[in-house]
Each structure stands twice: as structure tokens, then as C-alpha cells.
């Protein structure tokens, strides 16, 4: 299996390393030669092997003969369409074109192809810690493309889930739904920051609660994502006032040291303000 990875992002590193471990030959493409070679080194370290990967700044050298091409360049939609049209002219008819690292609809990106049925999207949920992969089926994606992509992702010892091409896909929508409700619970004084997160960390075996996750992602990033989903999907994703307040104050989470938690050296050290307490009546008041 020959795989071309276009782009030098963290997602590209993860996918390239998984392919190497599955004995695929990988070619990594980027515009900057230094970034390409740094990425090759990073992928080799992650995969624990130094063979079967080449880096290039030449598109034809990257995609020629590839069975699967991942576009993880992060380009704007028009530039991405141009790139994929160029790729399509260089690869075989049966080559899969897989689009990731984009907030654009996969359906819109694929519209520029002569054979849009060969395209679908990919979202690696957490390149550092998870092997869960969303495969995003565009309106044009054929059943054969979907099935071949599922088989390929499974061959990488990763877990694919197939989702429709909708805003936020599945995992992002679920994460943001939990985050927005958790922030509202803080606003309403339902429970403390720590208690809200423990409800899912200990009660539902989540690795991190929604408020801790929001801090890790960056509250500015969360706010932007919620605003986008609110426009697409309605008021259930409207960002709470408290989130606006924290972003405006520069309290963006782990990156700034303060969000819903205080952070030191990348670790949570305690809840930040506001941190509601659940008030109780005194014994004397209860007896009156």
C-alpha cells in the first residue's frame, strides 16, 4: 500500500506513523523543505522505524502511484480544490482522496473533482491520545469509496466511525454539547467546577470532564466553534455569557494559565473563579 500525506500538521504525523506501522510506504509532501524533513523525523520517532518514508516538495513525486492521498494542507477551500484537481490528474482512477484538517464541508471541497465520488473526509479525534477516526461521507461519496476507506483505516489498527458531512461531525458536536451545558451549569450555580467534571470523569469514565477539556482546547477556540455551530444548527449551541466573559478577559485555559481551572506546567492545580458552592441552610434555620 502506497500512501501520500500532503501537509505537515500533527494530524499528518499521526496518520503517517500509523501507516508506517502497518507496513505502508509513505511519502510526505509540503511546500517548505525544512518543514518536510522535520516532519519526516517526527513521524519516524513516533512510528519507531526509519524506513519506508520519504519527504518531498514535489507534488507528482508525492502522489504518483499512491493508493490513498490524504490532503491535510489546511488550505482555504479554493486553493484546496485547485490542489486536489492537480492531484486527481496525477493519480489512478481508483485512488482514494481523503480530506482532513478543514472546517469546510467535504461536499464543497469534492465538488471541484472530475470524479467526486472518490473523495471523503477524515477527522482524527485526538492525534496524540486516541485512535478513533471519523470518516466523513460527502454527498458525492460512493459506497465503494466509503467501504474501502473503512477497510483501510481498520488496517491501521484504528477505529473508524462513519458520519455524514454535517457541521461538527459527531465527536466535535458531542464535545461542544457537553461543554456548553457544563458552562451553563457553572453560570447557574448548579455545582462546582470540579464536581461538574467529576460527574463525567468518575461517573461516566471520561478521561477529562467538559470544563477541563474546554481549557485544554482553548476557550477562544471553543467559543469560535460554538458560534459556528449556532449559526448552522441553532440556539442549542449558543455560547453562554460566561464563556464570552472569560475570552474577553484573556482567560483562555491551559495556554494562558487560567480558564475554568488554574494551570501550572500544563496540569490543572485547582478551579478558577467563578467556582460555585452549593449553599445549605443552617440547622437552626431548619428547626424554625
What does this 3D model show about the protein?
The protein has 288 residues and is of the alpha/beta class. It is 43% helix and 17% strand. The chain is built from 12 helices and 10 strands. An 8-stranded mixed beta sheet has the order 3-2-1-4-5-6-7-8, sandwiched between helices. α2 links the parallel β2 (25-29) and β3. The protein is elongated, with a radius of gyration of 22 Å. The mean pLDDT is 94. Keywords: Oxidoreductase. InterPro entries: 3-OHacyl-CoA_DH, 3-OHacyl-CoA_DH_NAD-bd, 3HC_DH_C, 6-PGluconate_DH-like_C_sf, 6PGD_dom2, NAD(P)-bd_dom_sf.
Task: Quickly describe the structure.
The chain is of the alpha/beta class and 288 residues long. The chain has twelve helices and ten strands.
**Overall outline:** elongated
Tally of strands: 10
CATH topology of the largest domain: Rossmann fold
Elements, N to C (H/E) = EHEHEHEHEHEEHEHHHHHEEH
Helix content: 40-55%
Average of pLDDT: 94
Strand order of the largest sheet: 3-2-1-4-5-6-7-8
Q: What is the architecture of the largest domain at the second tier of CATH?
A: 3-Layer(aba) Sandwich
CATH superfamily of the largest domain: NAD(P)-binding Rossmann-like Domain
Total number of helices: 12
Largest sheet: 8 strands, mixed
Q: Name the beta content range.
A: 15-25%
**In CATH's first tier, which class of the largest domain applies?**
Alpha Beta
- The unreliable regions are none
**Cα-to-Cα separation, first versus last residue:** 78 Å
Give the class from helix and strand content and strand pairing.
alpha/beta
Total individual domains: 2
Using only CA atoms, what is the Rg?
22 Å
Site (Important for catalytic activity): 123
Keywords: Oxidoreductase
Region (Disordered): 255-288
GO molecular function, one term: NAD+ binding
